[in-house]
Specification:
The chain is α+β, with helices and mostly antiparallel strands and 136 residues long. The chain is built from 4 helices and 7 strands, in the order βββββαβααβα. Helix content is 21%, strand content 22%. The longest helix is centred in the C-terminal third of the chain and has 10 residues. Bound molecules: zinc ion. Zinc ion (ZN) binds next to loops.
């Protein structure tokens, strides 16, 4: 059985194998007001919650199976929008231990980071697809 690609919801991020996101509780930094006092006493948007007043932190509801968020490099390369990319020079992976590093299950965020510091060839319409999906 293969795990299906699973997208993180807005604001969600995996930290140390745990899902973090908007908890729905008041931000402890600004007590939910969305504002805090700046250095010179002026009021400004709270930096901890970006002015939303919502706490960003460890979510109470953790997915039963966190492994759906993790894939190996080969598995990510078989999913949209990475299909057709060929990694020519895997600088983002541990080159001294490439087989093990390549086979390591990683999050999409980590995969994107490793891809960004590697040399890769992209399909002709790749950046059009990315632009279209981020503008959707
Ligand atoms: Zn806040």
């Amino acid at each position: 059985m293969t795990s299906q690609p699973h997208d993180l919801d807005a604001g969600e991020v995996i930290i140390d194998g745990k899902l973090h996101g908007w908890t729905g509780r008041p931000c402890p930094n600004c007590q939910g007001s969305g504002e805090g006092a700046g250095y010179n006493g002026e009021w400004r948007k709270c930096t901890a919650c970006a002015g939303t007043g919502d706490e960003h932190g460890l979510l109470d509801n953790q997915p039963a199976d966190m492994s759906v968020y993790y894939k190996t490099a080969d598995e990510w390369l078989k999913t949209d929008p990475y299909k057709g990319i060929t990694i020519l020079d895997p600088d983002g992976w541990d080159r001294k231990n490439l087989d093990a590093s390549w086979a390591e299950p990683i999050t999409e965020e980590e995969f994107n980071f490793r891809l960004s510091i590697s040399t890769a060839s992209y399909p002709k319409d790749f950046f059009c697809i990315i632009t279209a999906s981020t503008n959707a």
